Amino acid sequence: MAKSPAKGEALHDLGREGARRAKRWLEATSRVDACWVNPDKGAGDKLTCAWPVGGQSFSFDLGGRLRYGDFDGQLFYAEVKKYGTYSGLNDHYVSFLAKCYVFYLAKSEFADNFVWLSWTPHGTSRWATLTSPAEVRDAVIKHAATIFPAGTDPQTAVDDDACRAVSERLWLLIVSDKQETLVPDVEHLALIHSHEMKKAAGQ
Length: 203
Fold this sequence. Notes:
Elements lengths: L4 H24 L3 E6 L5 H5 E3 L6 E3 L2 E5 L8 E7 L7 H18 L7 E5 L14 H10 L11 H4 L2 H10 E5 L11 H15 L3
Parallel strand pairs: 5-6, 6-7
Antiparallel strand pairs: 1-4, 2-3, 4-5
Helix pairs in contact: 3-4, 3-6, 4-6
């Protein structure tokens, strides 16, 4: 059954609000510059990739650059789900893994990190394996119709090296409403960034 326009718009509004809140929380950690948020101007092209088959494309919700430490300067692409229950999240996560696989093969030079950020946990019975190459492989096979040409055997067509690469780049982040408040305020963030800039300059 097709979604009603009102319900569809409500879901889009919830998605946009989730992306905004994810941006604020990530940036408040001081380790993230979430500079691309769909559908802001200029963000879409950076966050969008075409499915290999079918003429459709997909977009991540959020993206940008990581700061400081071992990840300094690396890029990230995030899918954000501001859901109150886990209903449907398993299917969305499988789709997210397939998108990461396609994006990695198309733009490997930019595919440093893939972030799944949700306000509700899912798949807890297999939590330890949710980021495994096997999970990525299974997701690709489930979305084979938009990845491999008709008549292709997806079991043999999957690039297992790409599955391993995506697995190594995955982050699973679960946020709560209260957790969003447990971050430094703007003044403290400014002190952190000032300290890091001085350190980088050798001062």
